[in-house]
Write a structure and sequence with these properties.
4-stranded antiparallel β-sheet; 630 residues; 11 strands; 5-stranded parallel β-sheet; single chain; alpha/beta; 52% helix
Length: 630
């Protein structure tokens, strides 16, 4: 079999996760984007990096821990399910759960720092070892911590030592000072940790580490492993924040922490000292330009060619520039861009296209949308387990939904939702759901002339903001490609379209115009009145354009039928007028379903529908382009 040497066959945009990408993907190929978040974490100005799944938190973490990242020593701390479960279960009598969790985190940081100091003193300060360093080495040996073991094993020893007072501090010569009979567990554990931390701080001071080289950097990632909504998980997260801030102030600048936390987890934490972390926070945000640069760098790295986008992709897709098409249909985060672009590549390679064709991108769009709709429910399954049950409210309808329509759809499902998710009943309200759906990026809100989606400093939907848009990422999977669910006009005519056998149907009858001509003129006049009203209607622009287009179809068809009638063709004009009436009635219903019931334009369609029925003479029957009939 001949080897495929086409550009598409060699093209890759990398792996979905940073860990794989840095080992077998493209992060190892010097394509990492040194974003503002990375630079701030590297400099030490920010220690709390917050972002959604796939926003690049782990990529920043991995890069800081690599040879080309932080210039000093680093320690990666990534709890797995077992470790997280142990921390959640950790309790101490006499202190709150938040404080207890902060103490076990402090233990992990202190032991890791002790390991680093002992190793650093041996490898970099080779001469006489200070007594403080010898004390740390002795502490590690006496407590079974000399070996650099798994995080879980170290945690288990810490849990046992702090809960049972079995933590030996003889190396520091102060054992009796902390082992006072009757001292509550929490107070005793805090004293024990204080001794250990002062021992680490003294060793760092005597070695001069704070002034001679970059600090030891703790990188804490994957805190969401095994995360639940129970109070113990909340305390795990809060305790970590408290411990990290304690470390920064404890070791005189020789040790610091950077935490990488999912936005939904961080936003769920409520504790009294939360305001003390504001200056440490940095939320990852991506612009379209940033994502384009990332994608292009990855494509060039995989092909080892300094190419431009038009060498791989079509210039436009569905009349939209390729970059706007791709990045408008994905959430603004690297993982989404990587997955979408890899799907485009896969579709082209499977079809034998090189470069990628417009049809390949369109095929990838549908698959990617289905992925992302599933991924969204998975991403928020802990905090919003009802999310997937909300999708039917948006399926096979327009992507623009007004507040009133959303409330109507919700109320039809409210009781069932509250029965299925009783723990979330207080939040299962129209206002609550709008806030949630906006916050996770599913809905955007019309604000001025723009549609705003969550991210950055943008405010959530406010009272009086009533127009919402489903994000383009999810529209194909939901079957919501148009702005509003308007059935296309397709009139039903009856007749053989041959010249009438006796005279002209359109000729004057006595001194008047024939009834058929009058009826068609009524249809034409109804259309013209509606088209004049549309520019004044309070409809979203895209919906107004769609409604105008469909009414113009009705108008054009009525004029064409009138010409056929004047030419002598036999046409069932009554049925044609009833088709137009039924269609106007259907538009009125559909606009009402989308929340436009109070609008004059909605009543206008209903009024014109009734007028045409009366003009026909109250006839019943006929067809229309919709399922409605009279």
């Amino acid at each position: 079999m001949l080897e495929d040497h086409s550009a598409v066959s060699q093209l890759s945009f990398g792996k979905d996760d940073a860990e794989s990408d840095i080992t077998v993907g493209l992060l190892s190929s010097a394509v990492f984007q040194e974003t503002y978040a990375y630079r701030e974490a590297l400099s030490g100005r920010k220690s709390l990096i917050i972002g959604r799944k796939g926003a690049g938190k782990s990529a920043i973490c991995q890069q800081l821990g690599s040879a080309g990242g932080h210039p000093g020593p680093t320690a990666m701390i990534t709890p797995d399910d077992a470790t997280s479960n142990e921390i959640r279960r950790f309790e101490l009598v006499g202190v709150t759960d938040d404080t207890a969790k902060s103490l076990i985190w402090r233990y992990l940081f202190a032991v890791q720092a002790a390991h680093d100091v002992v190793t650093h003193a041996r490898t970099s300060h080779g001469r006489r070892t200070p007594g403080s360093v010898r004390a740390l080495r002795k502490f590690l040996e006496m407590n079974g911590e000399a070996a650099d073991e798994r995080l879980y094993d170290r945690l288990r020893r810490g849990v046992q030592g702090l809960q049972s007072a079995s933590l030996s501090l003889k190396a520091f010569g102060v054992e009796a000072a902390v082992d006072v009979a009757g001292t509550p567990e929490g107070a005793r554990a805090d004293r024990q940790l204080g001794v250990l931390e002062r021992g680490v701080a003294l060793a760092l001071e005597e070695l001069g580490c704070a002034t001679e080289h970059a600090p030891l950097l703790f990188l804490v990632d994957k805190v969401d492993q095994g995360w639940t909504i129970d109070p113990d998980s909340h305390s795990l997260g809060t305790g970590l924040l408290l411990a990290a801030k304690h470390v920064t102030g404890q070791y005189g600048g020789a040790v610091r922490c950077v935490l990488f936390v999912r936005a939904d987890i961080y936003d769920s934490l409520r504790f009294s000292d939360a305001d003390k972390f504001r200056s440490d926070e940095l939320r990852i945000s991506w612009t379209q330009e940033g994502l384009e640069g990332m994608a292009l760098a990855r494509a060039r790295a995989s092909l080892k060619v300094n190419l431009t986008p038009d060498q791989l992709f079509p210039a436009e897709v569905s009349g939209e520039p390729i970059t706007a098409y791709v990045f408008r249909r994905s959430l603004p985060r690297p993982r989404d861009a990587i997955q979408f672009l890899n799907l485009c590549r896969d579709a082209a390679h499977e079809r034998g296209n090189d470069p990628i064709a417009e049809g390949d991108v369109i095929a990838a769009t549908d698959k990617f949308s289905a992925w992302k709709l599933d991924d969204l429910a998975t991403e928020y399954r802990v905090n919003h387990p009802y999310l997937e049950s909300l999708y039917p409210m948006f399926e096979n309808t327009g992507y623009i939904v007004m507040r009133q329509a959303l409330e109507t759809r919700f109320h039809a499902r409210a009781e069932q939702l509250r029965q299925e998710f009783p723990d979330y009943a207080d939040n299962l309200t129209p206002t609550g759901l709008i806030s949630v759906l906006y916050g996770i990026g599913f809905l955007g809100v019309k604000r001025g002339n723009n549609v705003v989606y969550a991210g950055g400093p943008k405010a959530p939907p406010q009272p009086g903001e009533d127009e919402f848009h489903v994000h383009p990422c999810f529209r194909p999977a939901l079957g919501s490609q148009g702005p509003v669910e308007l059935t296309a006009y397709s009139p039903t005519r009856v007749g053989n379209h041959t010249r009438a056998a006796t005279g002209s149907i359109a000729s004057d009858v006595g001194l008047g115009v024939s009834r058929d001509v009058q009826l068609l003129n009524q249809v034409i006049q109804s259309c013209e009145r509606l088209l004049r009203r549309l520019p004044r209607a309070a409809l979203p622009e895209s919906i107004g354009v769609e409604v105008h287009s469909q009414v113009s179809h009705v108008l054009g068809d009525a004029r064409a039928v009138l010409e056929e009638l004047r030419a002598g063709s036999a046409v069932d004009v009554s049925r044609h007028a009833l088709a137009a009436s039924g269609y106007f009635d259907r538009i009125a219903v559909q606009l009402s379903d989308h929340g436009f019931q109070p609008e004059p334009i909605t009543r206008g369609f209903a009024d014109e529908a009734r007028l045409l029925v009366r003009a026909v003479g109250g006839a019943v029957g006929g067809g229309s382009g919709s399922s409605s009939s009279h």
